[in-house]
Structure prediction request, 833 residues.
Amino acid sequence: MTVEIKTLDFEPKRHTFGHVARRIGGDKPATRYQEATLDAQATENFHYKPLYEPQFWHYDTAKTKVVMDDWYKPLDPRQYYYATYNIARANMNQAVERNFTFVEDKNLLGKVSEDLKQKLIIGLIPVRHIHWGSNMNTSEMCQRGYGTAFTAPCMFSAGDHLGMAQIVSRIGLELDGQTGIGLDKAKDAWMNDNAWQGIRKLVENTLVQRDFFELFVAQVFAINGIILDAIYNGMDDAWGDASLPISMLTEFMNDWQKEEARWSHSTIKIVAAESPENKALVSAWSNDWINRAEDALRIYTTAIAGDENIAKTYADKMRTTAKSLGLEI
Amino acid sequence: MAVKKMGLKQKYAHLTRGLDWETTYEKMDDVFPYDKFEGIKITDWSKWEDPFRLTMDSYWKFQAEKERKLYAVIDAFAQNNGQTNISDARYVNVLKLFLTGISPEEYQAHRGFAFTGRHLRGVGPRVACQQQSLDELRHFQTQCHTISHFNKFFNGLSEFRTMHDRVFYLSVPKSFFDDARTSGPFEFMVAIGFAFEYVLTNLLFVPFMSGAAYNGDMSTVTFGFSAQSDESRHMTLGIEVIKFLLEQHPDNLPIVQEWVDKWFWRGFRLLGLVSMMMDYMLPKKVMSWKEAWEIYFVEAGGTLFKDLERYGLKMPKYHEQATEACEHISHQLWGLLYQLSHVAGLHAWMPSDEDMDWLSEKYPNTFDKYYRPRFELWKQQEAEGKRFYFNGLLQLCHTCQLPMTFTEPDDPTTTCFRESEYEGQHFHFCSDGCKDIFDREPEKYISSWLPIQQIFQGNCGGPTVPDVLKWYMFGPNDGAEYVGSEDHKLWESWKNTTTKEAAE
Prediction:
């Protein structure tokens, strides 16, 4: 048995917007991702040159050396538009809240030794500054990049990095009894401890990178793919008794890393596959930034974990991934 | 020893500002290369008061809740064919104006706030700008989704993106936002954050949303309600920026005053499009443009600038001219659109007798004296089957890019023309305000992409009107008179169907 509600039928004249129809192979129902993304950015007949950078238009494909026939080729496999992005993150964050509550209720971090707490404050909490630098980079890619398919997910990433910086900060506040003293110590370590200087230099080097796609490669492969991955996953031995609660409290970052890579890796793959010139550029950038990340990471893992090999492990893993995306490594 | 726990404000400071650091491997001026050339002096970024303290986890949570509700309504609207319950199909032209003229600017605001969210040196304003950047993307995308359903049935919406880049009257909003986007980060904040979002938002965003509410467009008005809390945040950021700039250094005052003057006048000209929407396009009127201006600019704006007097900031230059012009602009612009609707992407029509009386009542000083006679003549010509269209190309103001249609401040019978010479070339303006803006930055404005000149230069699809309209991607039934249009016929057929079905 089916229940049938009688309604009036109204025949639509068209199914989607013209610019969307031309991209999806004709007038047919389009997804919300497509209507929200395709050709959203203006492309022609700009009025004025930017006062701060008169050599370009404010939307200008020349702001990177890679050349795409169409910047709407690298689409987001997650099909994120604002609503789906926020709903996904709100859901992920429910797990964060549960994990914080669990760790607090069981006093899992309170129980660890004072030495270990200090080690975490010095060794882990400065990661919030990496996320902040990453937030600056992803905002830059959004403002500077070309085409909404590329730039909108960059702004989502900016929100993600700010969110993750704040999760790490909350871990810091768990460790310092909600005083903020631990966060100040962590910042001092970030600025002055030898362990962090390679990574800080790497991050600062990215902050002055003005080629938006080289910046993207540096962020995705070097910072997300090597530095953050290694710190969140390769340091269990160093965190000792705290490794379980730390894994729980950083679960968001691991879920995020896998999810974000679906988009960012596919983007790199598509851009590199566009032409031999793009492939050569992206390969060269990848080699350079992976090497720099490996060197920076080695200083950190040697100082914090007493382990020189972690850096190579993570860098090699990234090299393998980069090769699988069609790059010459 | 018990250590004192932090308060919320202090905690938020740790979760945002504490994240930043003074770079040493790269120079700070290389990390932030764009925030000095405008001459704004910031002595202490830490004096920035966060107007709202929203961590990302709360942001995701609130926004996700709002999106779930909004999309439920959008889906229900489509499922129940909400487009048949609007007041009249003339109303859809309001959505055409909105989607072609305003939504693409929401997108520009998204990218602009990404720029300031990266390149202002202070962390507090940067975080607020980033959240606004996300919000503005939301507004663009949800507007597309809301109006998408109308696009399935009505003309003039389908090619909104291409139209925005090409059509002559849409260069008014486009050049406005291009101007803001190509300014430095501080000017952008004053232009969009303060002048647009704070001073003028009640005259732009709100009339469209109230118009939707009055005219049975459940879908768009639900978007409006959903965006309200975003807009409040944006307003708070806008006012905080102004106060911060003025408190930081006395040298900032003259720069900020010039920006406020410029962006007030540019905003006022852009709002001309809203004025005709409110007075002529809404089948069910919310209030007259003049009333809206009195409430939201004269009164609310007056109070605001009174409050800002303590910083030395004055009411924007030519505000008296603007208030005086509010007696005229909606009539002048609608008259213009009526004559040009055969080369526009939306319909125009003459007001009904009832609407004419409403206009007489709302504009006792001007409507009957200057505009009614012309409109009645046009109605009479329509009745005789000789609907009037203007065939020719109009001269545009070089700054605001509206056609030269406005009258002298003290003489509503004489069209206002102003002129400047720069590097041996002559430039024309519709007003003192627009001339001043050009004279202040001629090297910026000489590059304006003026649609009419571009047609003459052969950059718009070809030399003939049909060539240009094709290049604008207008459909054959997008423009001209509403009465008898495809939209009109469709609407009539729906009314017949629903009445018939209900009777059965």
Remarks:
- Chain A touches chain B through 84 residues (CB under 8 Å).
- The domain at 82-324 of chain A is CATH 1.10.620.20 (Ribonucleotide Reductase, subunit A).
- Chain A has one domain: 82-324.
